[in-house]
Automatic annotation (TrEMBL):
GO cellular component: plasma membrane; proton-transporting ATP synthase complex; proton-transporting two-sector ATPase complex, proton-transporting domain
Biological role: F(1)F(0) ATP synthase produces ATP from ADP in the presence of a proton or sodium gradient. F-type ATPases consist of two structural domains, F(1) containing the extramembraneous catalytic core and F(0) containing the membrane proton channel, linked together by a central stalk and a peripheral stalk. During catalysis, ATP synthesis in the catalytic domain of F(1) is coupled via a rotary mechanism of the central stalk subunits to proton translocation. Key component of the F(0) channel; it plays a direct role in translocation across the membrane. A homomeric c-ring of between 10-14 subunits forms the central stalk rotor element with the F(1) delta and epsilon subunits.
Positions bearing the site annotation: Reversibly protonated during proton transport: 59
Signal peptide: none
Record organism: Lautropia mirabilis ATCC 51599
Pfam families according to UniProt: ATP-synt_C
One function term, GO molecular function aspect: lipid binding
Protein name: ATP synthase subunit c
Keyword Transmembrane tagged: yes
């Protein structure tokens, strides 16, 4: 296999595992938000704000992984 094939496989793994991790993280966070707001409805506004901040951080980590994958795909630093 050529170097380009390995880079393509690595990019797929980076984006795929990043998407999987972000999806699982947001799903768990959403479930805990619903549990917390059902348990204490008066704190729903504060919990919702915290949930949106954490969702943004989780998505930012995934998008950084996509950026790294794009770096490898288009500006391959390993190309000879």
């Amino acid at each position: 296999m050529t170097n380009a094939a390995y880079v393509a496989i690595a990019c797929g793994i980076i984006v795929g595992l990043g998407a999987l991790g972000a999806s699982i993280g947001i799903a768990l966070m959403g479930g805990k938000f619903l549990e917390g707001s059902a348990r204490q409805p008066e704190l729903m506004g504060k919990l919702q704000t915290s949930m949106f901040v954490l969702a943004g951080l989780i998505d930012a980590a995934f998008l950084i992984g996509v950026g790294v994958a794009m770096l490898f795909a288009f500006g391959n630093p390993f190309a000879a």
